[in-house]
Amino acid sequence: MELQLESIRKVVGGQVYLYEMSLALKPGLNVLLGPTTAGKTTLMRLMAGLEQPTSGRILLDGQDVTRLPVKKRNVAFVYQQFINYPNLTVFENIASPLRIRGGLSKTALRERVEATARMMRIHDLLDRLPAALSGGQQQRTAIARALVKETGLLLMDEPLVNLDYKLREELRIEMQNIFDSRDAIVVYSTTEPVEALMLGGTVFVLDQGRLLQSGPVLEVYHHPDTQRVGEIFSDPPMNLLDARLEEGQLRLADGQRFPATSHMAGLLPGAYRIGVRPNHVTTAPTGPSSVAVPGVVELAEISGSETFLHTATAPGPDGSPGKLVAQLEGVHRFELGQPTTLYMDPDQLYLFDMEGKLAAAPERIWEEAV
Amino acid sequence: MTDRRRWTNALIMVLYFILLMLPIYWMLNMSFKTNEEILGTFSLWPRNPTLANYRTIFTDPAWYSGYINSITYTSMNTVMSVAIALPAAYAFSRYNFLGDNHLFFWLLTNRMAPAAVFLLPFFQLYQNIGLYDTHLAVALAHLLFNVPLSVWILEGFMSGVPKEIDETAAIDGYSFPRFFFRIFIPLIRSGIGVTAFFAFMFSWVELLLARTLTSVNAKPIAATMTRTVSASGMDWGLLAAAGVLTIIPGALVIYFVRNYIAKGFALGRV
Lengths: 370, 270
Known about the structure:
With 370 residues, chain A is α+β, with helices and mostly antiparallel strands. Chain A has eight helices and 21 strands. Chain A has two domains: 3-227, Rossmann fold, CATH 3.40.50.300; 237-360, CATH 2.40.50.140. The longest helix of chain A is centred in the middle third of the chain and has 17 residues, at 165-181. Chain A is elongated and about 75 Å long. In chain B, 77% of the residues lie in helices and 1% in strands. The interface between A and B is medium-sized, with 21 and 16 residues.
């Protein structure tokens, strides 16, 4: 089973929703990663057949399904909003696609519905109406309805985004097991890099209607083709610092220099942009070669068991304010306006050229915690 | 809230209620009186209550056929309005097509013209095609006002149902009619109730078209009521009794759709 999108494009009322792109999806998990308005939903609607591309073809196992109406396709779709039939019970909601398709005996249907409900842990709620369920249970019902059909193509458009944190973690793990256990093309869209990393599989990075990069999740994470992919695939976004490479040394905006490391070898001298992930910025030197960046605390956000420290650093060559964000383990207190020094390890720096293309990526550190 | 405030509030409500109910009470009062009592004395309740006025209405075919006619064309109109407005409202709520907003507005402008404007063309047309003095004639004429209103109300309710439900049904493999009747209509039940109510009420109280387009066979009750003006003067008691009976169907309809209307006011467009 393979889903191919051949040079598809989508334009609505003169506005380009998707620029021409081609992609091939294989059974297993395919994650669409991108910020809002990246075109994830549009792309999934095209895959489902809810909308037709302005140009291009969609092939399923080599067969052209571009114009095939959605009800003739074998797909399932889970929306970001909790969409169920409000007038049908949970049981009838889940049973609905099976009933339409027909061909199942009453007991077989009941068994299928109950098995799926048990998998989503809503088997005690089968007699209720969706309105009598919590948000999480409603979304489980919607997911159960999508799973019960056992389709070859399962599309999930940010299915967990409207749920609270705890439930999200729980459901994500459950769904991962379900995805692993079936031989279907699962397409899962998300705005969160962490979610993409946790789910694994193949990732397609989208931005402003363009497909920026695709490949195995970790490969894309460690080797972003462009600065933009690095920014999207990092939360908080990757820090970017202006620098010049001269005589084997990198010079930062504040004038300090440090030797370029081995992965930057062979680069032509000139202006570059250093990319460093916030989780690689520390409050203490990690080694003898650590680069110290002095700054002033602008904001310290505490999120869960982590602290995001935003500092203002020396302005760039064009006068734009410099800033550096560090993602620190644990809860820390910082006074606003307090001078502080952050450190980064030259071994973990990305270099992008001034057009945003990747010039040098750090050696992969596979055991890295994300 | 202090006791005093509560009493003041209650008093205001009672006064308001009396103000609202007084004309209706007076009509009820009159309907149980004889003409002599109505014209001769001032009494707050009937001194010699009589059912003679009601008896006349229920036994004289000239009277009760008026009610039957009114109920017939009103029911026909209500059913037709909802049946025509449902698909139209669905199209307006779900599809974008060239000029959809203009069309929607144009539809509503039909309600802005007074009924008298359409009187002559309807009369002339129905005379020619043999529809004059039939229930269908009045029902069709009232569609001109009720279909736009129904489309407008239903469109509001339908737009409250997420489009994703339609799509989910398509993904699940529902055919359109099956989705529409099994999933969609139950979701806008209250809207249909409210729509039917408004269509019924308009058609029930509309006099001008109903009277002009009928003569004998489909004559509405409101037209019959004007008959009581005769050479011997006005039959006040009979007129009051007819008035009371005219209120009843409306009150019944309100009673049956009251929950829908409450919901409708909260959810939809009314």
